[in-house]
Amino acid sequence: MRDSVRKVYHYTILVQNKPGQAFKVLAALVSAGINLLACTGTPRGRRAQIDVVPDDTRKFNAAVRKAGLKFASKKAGFLIQGEDRPGALADNLKLLADKGINVAAVDGLSAGKGRWGAIVWVDPKDVNRAARVLRAKAM
C-alpha cells in the first residue's frame, strides 16, 4: 500500500516560559474543536515557542481570531503516513532528492500498531514541486 501524503500548514506562537502557558493555548484550541496533527514546544529564554499543525486551517484561523491568540509563521509542509517498514521515510526523501528538492526539516515517528508518520518541510519555493513529486492531496 502506498503512503498517504497531504499538504499541511504550520503555525507558531510565542508565550511566556512559565507553567500553564502551553495548556492555555491548547485549551483554547480544544474548546473550539480544533484537531492538531502535530504540536511541539521549545523554550526560547523567557519565552516559549509552541508550533502546531492543525487538521483544518480554516477552522483553526477562525478559532485563533476568536480566542485572540497571535499565531504567525504559516508555512507549508507534507504529512506522510503509512504502514511502518524499514526505509519508509527514506523512500519518500529519495523522491524529493531525485528531483533536486532540498528538505529543510523532518519530524518523523512511529505511530504504533505498524504505522508511521512524518512531516517533511521544504523551502517555500519548492512546495508546489514537492507536492507534485509526493502526489500530495490538497486539504
Overview of this protein structure:
The protein is α+β, with helices and mostly antiparallel strands and 139 residues long. The protein is built from four helices and six strands; from the N terminus they run βαββαβαββα. The chain has a six-stranded antiparallel sheet with strand order 2-3-1-4-6-5, covered by helices on one side. The longest helix has 11 residues. The relative contact order is 0.23. The model has no long low-confidence stretch (mean pLDDT 95).
Write the layout of secondary structure elements.
Elements: E1 4-16, H1 21-31, E2 36-44, E3 47-54, H2 57-67, E4 72-83, H3 88-98, E5 103-112, E6 115-122, H4 127-134
Antiparallel strand pairs: 1-3, 1-4, 2-3, 4-6, 5-6
Largest sheet: 6 strands, antiparallel
From the spread of the alpha carbons, the general shape counts as globular
Enumerate the spans where pLDDT stays under 50 for 5 or more consecutive residues. Answer: none
What is the first-to-last residue Cα distance?
21 Å
Strand order of the largest sheet: 2-3-1-4-6-5
Q: State the helix count.
A: 4
As a percent range, the share of strand residues is 35-45%
Task: Give me the strand/helix succession.
Answer: EHEEHEHEEH
Measured as a percent range, the helix fraction is 25-40%
Structural class: alpha+beta
Oligomer: single chain
- What does the average pLDDT come to? 95
Number of strands: 6
Global Rg: 16 Å
